[in-house]
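WARN no homologs supplied; continuing
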Amino acid sequence: MYELLDEHRALEPKCLENFKNLNDLMKRFEALERIAAYMKSPRFMKGPINNRMAQWGK
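OK structure emitted
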């Protein structure tokens, strides 16, 4: 669920503005200690979206 919502935010940053529960879910997930550490590490891949051959986000 997180990955799908994150991709939607990448394509349309304001898409979750009117959905407090989804925004809170995203924030809580990103704040989990191990998730936050991973997202700050060089292993974390913000893009491209979909797979290695995708062009979006390059």
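The first helix runs from residue 2 to 11.
OK
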